[in-house]
Known about the structure:
The protein is α/β, with parallel strands linked by helices and 631 residues long. Helix content is 46%, strand content 17%. Residues 100, 168, 171, 400 line the site of magnesium ion.
Amino acid sequence: MALAFDEFGRPFVIIKEQDQKVRLRGLDAQKANIASGMAVSRILRTSLGPKGMDKMLQSPDGDVTITNDGATILEQMDVDNQIAKLLVELSRSQDYEIGDGTTGVVVLAGALLEQAQKLLERGVHPIRVAEGYETASRIAVEHLEKIAQKFDFGVNNIEPLVQTCMTTLSSKIVNRCKRSLAEISVKAVLAVADLERKDVNLDLIKVEGKVGGKLEDTELIYGIVVDKEMSHPQMPKQIEDAKIAILTCPFEPPKPKTKHKVDIDTVEKFQTLRKQEQQYFDNMVQKCKGVGATLVICQWGFDDEANHLLMHRNLPAVRWVGGVELELIAIATGGRIVPRFEELTPEKLGKAGLVQEKAFGTTKDRMLYVEHCANSRAVTIFIRGGNKMMIEETKRSIHDALCVARNLIRNNSIVYGGGSSEISCSISVEAAADRYPGVEQYAIRAFADALDSVPMSLAENSGLQPIETLSAVKSQQIKENNPYCGIDCNDAGTNDMREQNVFETLIGKQQQILLATQDHLFRAFSSFFLFFVSNDSARMSKCDGTGNISCQQANGVCTRWLLRNARTPLFRAARSICIFQFPFMDRVMQVWFGVIIYGSWTLSALMLDSFVVSLGGWSDKENYYTFRDKI
Length: 631
Ligand SMILES: Nc1ncnc2c1ncn2[C@@H]1O[C@H](COP(=O)(O)OP(=O)(O)OP(=O)(O)O)[C@@H](O)[C@H]1O
Ligand SMILES: [Mg+2]
């Protein structure tokens, strides 16, 4: 192995005897892909659940992130392998859709891959595995609905929402304050929620953090907090009944777009220029005061001259406020963002009951609070904490809690956590497997085994014996017919998750199962097609139980070849087999015709899972499926 550098100075490794490497094919390639997917999931396994460990990740430029959030861990990992990347995307989709459960989805997908490997080794075709998994996931999702419970909540009864958010927060580093943070998250979501339409716009919740203080000092502000201070230290620190001009134009003299040169050779000329400049500032300040503004919030900076003038004219101002904050302030105060001084009118001013600048402790850090706004639908969660990493992790945890509260407002069904719903699904999937006569049965059972991986990981991470604990809980669920028994991670003395108040949202859990089973992960292993052109008159009819296909009239060359090779790796790897038959044409014509039709059907074959085309002759669909089952 040697280290070399490319033309940009980036190092790369040259491995000796690279040409001796061989491309993996068939089962070996599938196994290699599965191994890389499992490696990713193994990394996340240890951070699942309330006793799961956090991960410390270092970025290439030395930044350190400490987190328990699955999506963040995977986002920060530099994953190269394509299958592993699919897992990263899986977790990202869960994060986008649901917000929580990003670790669980990868653990489940990893377990499904592990089980798939065993099936592939036993000769089951990947498509059969994928189909079996699909069936099993449908059963599991339906079962979840059966064991789910609905609860009522209202603006005066937020306890159920708080309890569910607490379950989400209990697996995070912030769990010592989970009660207060859960309450803050629920109140924030309810403040911006439209309960009639069951819609929550999370963009209206701003999560802001500042190093210093304690986690317990985290608060919810019905208004906006911006990390800015008044532009001049002598400006008033508190403004009541503020009328706010929200500007995106700078307090500066206009700059001509063309190149220009000003010659100042006399004192008079300088005086005139200075006066003119002052006049500009004066006009600007006057325009703001003229419409009745008592506070100016500006996206850009001010000239010192303007700043001085603003202070003098008793018009407090804040500068360099970011675009997002500006927008939130405009929403909260009911004001309009004004791009030119000429366009300022009294109606465009935002209104807030109280704007104040607050200082924290002995630090000189100040922040601006805009409270009692005209439109109180924008709120801020202001996080305090000992260091930046803690604040960032708290932001991520609060994001999870906010998403959970939002999901509950959309759909108020919950299932119980601690692995109880997974165990219950596993039992029901296992029982359903017997109803399927085909090879899928094995895949469905494998799915049930994979579902056990979540409670097993929870037990393992809590220092319990995974297999013993799981089997005890499983038998208890069956014996007591109680789907709420889970893993007692916190040693609370009972494993009934109803008593422990461990709730999760139904849609979150369903999404986890559906995403983890996402087809492309498994179908990716078998992705090419075979096609045949034939004028044989054979009729494929019988497939005996041993997997041999017998033909009544195997007289055509193509059919015989097909039968001879049905068990070869080529056939096993094919995603679908297309058979064209044109008994009325000669061979050359058939090939051309076949190529044209094949081209046009490949696209549809990519969409449909498999198909068979037969123009006259023997190959009807049923036989094809039986045939496919056997190979
Ligand atoms: N007090 C508890 N007792 C038992 N199990 C719990 C408890 N609190 C949470 N859990 C379980 O822990 C799991 C959630 O763990 P965690 O929050 O680490 O992962 P995640 O939600 O899948 O992903 P992330 O939160 O990173 O997006 C769920 O299965 C949940 O039921
Ligand atoms: Mg979680």
